[in-house]
Amino acid sequence: MSEFGNDLMSPAGWLPLVFALVMALSMLAYVILDGYDLGVGVLLDSADTVEQKNTMIASIGPFWDANETWLVLGVGVLLVGFPMAHGVILGALYLPVALMLVALSLRGVAFDFRVKAKSHHRPLWDKTFYIGSVLASWSQGFMLGQLITGFKQDAPGYVFSALIGFCLVFAYRLLGAGWLIMKTEGALQLRAVEWAKGSLWLTAAGVLAISVATPWVSPRIFDKWFSFPNLLMLLPIPAMTLALFVVIRRSLSRLPTRFASGNQYGAGVPFACTVGVFLLSFYGLAYSLFPWLVIDKLNIWQAASAPEALLVIFYGVVVVLPVIIGYTVFAYRVFWGKSTQLKY
C-alpha cells in the first residue's frame, strides 16, 4: 500500500507510478538534450564571426529537432495519463506555454530559413534563432518557478518565477557552452570556455534559489528534507552538486592552456559535470514533489485516467519508448565527434 492508500499491486496503483516515471524521464531527457541546443542558440548572438555561427549551428544540426521529441512525449503522457492535472497545470501556465511554443516555432523557422537565405539576410535569421532560444528558455524557467510555488497567482510568485526563468537561460547557456567545448576547436572553443565561465555562477544561483524555495512551499516537503534521518541521508545531494560546480570552475580555468598546445584532454568535463548538476537538481525536485503533480492539491493517483485506459496506453508506451531511445542513441553515435565548418 502507498501512503495515500492505493494498492500498488493493482493496476490502479502501479500504472500511475509507471506513467509518472515515464513523464519525469521524458522531461529530464528534454531538459538536458534540448537544453544544450537552446543554450547554443542563446550563445549564437555572442559569436565573433559568421564562420563561428555556422559551426555552432552545425554542432546541433543533426540533433536539435529530434531532441524536442521528448517534450512531446512528456506532455503527451501528462495529457493521456493525468488529464485532470493536464487541465490544471496548462490552464495555470497558458501564457508561458504559448510563449514557449511561439519561441520554438521561431527557432524552427529560423533554422531552416538561414540555410536558404542569401548572405545579407542570414543575420536576420540568426537573430531570430537567438531570440527564440532566449524566450523558450526563459518561459520554461518561469513554468518551473510556478510549479515550485504551487501556481500561486501573486506578485512574489511571479517575481520568483521570472528570476528562475532568468537563471535557467544561463543554465542552458552553460550547458550549450559545454557542448561547444566538446564539439569545436580553435577560437570558437576558447570563446565557449569564456561563455561557460560567465554562466556558471548564475546557474548556481538558480539551483540555490530552487533548493531554498521548494522546502518552504509546503510543510510536507520541509519535513521530507529536514526531519531525521532524512536530513543526513539527503545531505550528499547538495554536497555533490557543490562539488560539481567546483570541478566545472577548476576545469574551465585549466582548459585554455591545454587547448593552446593542441591537447583536448578534459574537453568533455564541463558538459558532463553540468549534466550531473541537472540530474541531481532534477532528483531533488522529484523527491520534493512526489507524489504531487500540483503541490498538496493533486497527486498522481487522483489525477490518473481510468486503469483500463492506462493499460491500453501502457502497451503503446512499451513499443514507442524503446524506439525513441534507440533512435536517439543511434543519432548521437553516428554524428559524434568534432563539428566542422558548415557549408551551403
Q: Would you mind describing this structure in some detail?
A:
By secondary structure, the chain is mainly alpha-helical. It has one domain (11-334). It is built from 15 helices and two strands. It has helices at 11-43, 50-60, 64-67, 69-81, 83-92, 94-116, 122-148, 155-183, 186-217, 219-226, 230-234, 236-260, 269-289, 300-303, 307-334, and strands at residues 292-294, 298-299. A hairpin with a 3-residue loop joins strand 1 and strand 2. The longest helix is centred in the first third of the chain and has 33 residues, at 11-43.
Write the layout of secondary structure elements.
Blueprint (H helix, E strand, L loop, with lengths): L10 H33 L6 H11 L3 H4 L1 H13 L1 H10 L1 H23 L5 H27 L6 H29 L2 H32 L1 H8 L3 H5 L1 H25 L8 H21 L2 E3 L3 E2 H4 L3 H28 L10
Antiparallel strand pairs: 1-2
Helix pairs in contact: 1-4, 1-7, 1-8, 1-13, 1-15, 4-5, 6-7, 7-8, 8-9, 8-13, 9-10, 9-12, 9-13, 12-13
Q: Short summary of the structure?
A:
The protein is globular and about 60 Å long.
H/E element sequence: HHHHHHHHHHHHHEEHH
Mean pLDDT: 89
Beta-strand proportion: under 5%
Count of alpha/pi helices: 15
The strand line-up of the biggest sheet is: 1-2
Terminal-residue CA separation: 60 Å
Taking the sheet with the most strands, its summary is:
2 strands, antiparallel
Helix content: over 70%
- Name the structural class: mainly alpha
Tell me the Rg in angstroms: 21 Å
Low-confidence region ranges: none
Domain unit count: 1
**Overall outline:** globular
Number of strands: 2
